[in-house]
Amino acid sequence: MNQTMISAAVSMNGLQRKLDIIADNVANLNTKGYKRKTASFADVLTNVQQHNDDFRQPGRVTPMGYTLGYGSMLTDLSRDMSQGSLQHTGVSTDVALQGNALFEVGTPTGTAWMREGSFHYIIDEDERILTSAEGHPVMSTNDTEIRIPAGYEMKIDEAGRVFGVKTGEPDEELGQIKVVRPLKPELLVQTENNLYVLPQGADRNTIVETLNLTGDRSDPNAPHVYVMQGMLEESNVSMVDEMADLIQAQRAYQLASRALMSGDAMWGLANSLRA
User: Fold this and answer.
1) What keywords appear on the UniProt entry (predicted)?
2) Residue 174 in this model has a pLDDT that exceeds 80
3) Mean per-residue pLDDT over the chain, rounded
4) pTM of the full predicted structure?
5) Rounded distance between C-alpha atoms, residue 236 and residue 52, angstroms
6) More confident call, 158 vs 65
């Protein structure tokens, strides 16, 4: 396979993956708490080939040599963790995060994190357990489930503290929602239902950090993260940006495919030559 076809094939492979990422973003445009994926590309085996001395002519101002590469490939898939817009729902079990943070939930396979706060209750005898939409219990700062006694309504303050509210009785603190900050979000592995987990064998403390939201908020080093009850975070995907990226990726893919066809045509011409 000649260099033209190699470069075109490598580029088409990377661009196909970019198109898949754009399609994933568009498909999750209305998914609560979804974070946009972005792709980065790099040249493949780029090096400088030297000209022979015949190219060293009087008056030449450009340096000798020319760049030879083999297309580009996808080198990094990252997530845009920027804040999505907040939508007021008025539902007491809907919770949104303002700031760079994730909720912690317990799953059958271990700890996971999520941005979406569309929580629900699971009835357990005379109590209700706060869970995700998939039934994963929302963890407290004590690494226990958050349980709401029967007859009490749930109230959550901006620090994530959960209170049981009952008419005629003082509020009862039931725990605090555990919130973590992703230190290296690019290392988190996204699984089904927009859950994030640690890669196998990774050290938790190097990837996520448990936040203390009850400290002095005037402290410049305090985490600027707020828990908002009765609200949900929208996806941070912009349809305009995705459409612009889609057009660029499609045009680049079209260009690479034409280069591949040109290489094929040249080979066909060479094969048809007769001595």
Assistant:
1) Bacterial flagellum, Cell projection, Cilium, Flagellum
2) yes
3) 89
4) 0.80
5) 53
6) 158
Letter for the amino acid at 122? I
Asked if 195 contacts 114 with a C-beta cutoff of 8 angstroms, the reply is yes
pLDDT surpassing 70 at residue 191: yes
Compute CA distances 248 → 17, 116, 117, whole Å: 14, 31, 34
Whose CA is closest to 35, among 223, 192, 234, 228? 234
- The DSSP annotation for the chain comes to --HHHHHHHHHHHHHHHHHHHHHHHHHTTTSTT---EEEEEEESS-EEEPPPGGG--TT--SPS-EEE---EEEEEEEE--PPPPEEE---TTBEEEESS-EEEEEETTEEEEES--B-EEEEETTEEEEE-TTSPBBBBTTSSB-EEETT-EEEE-TT-EEEEE-TTS--EEEEEB-EEEESSGGGPEE-GGG-EEPPTT--HHHHEEE--TTS-TTSTTS---EEEETEEEPP---HHHHHHHHHHHHHHHHHHHHHHHHHHHHHHHHHH---
Task: Give me the residues paired with residue 148 across strands.
Answer: 128
Mean pLDDT of 94-121: 95
CA distance 26 to 31: 10
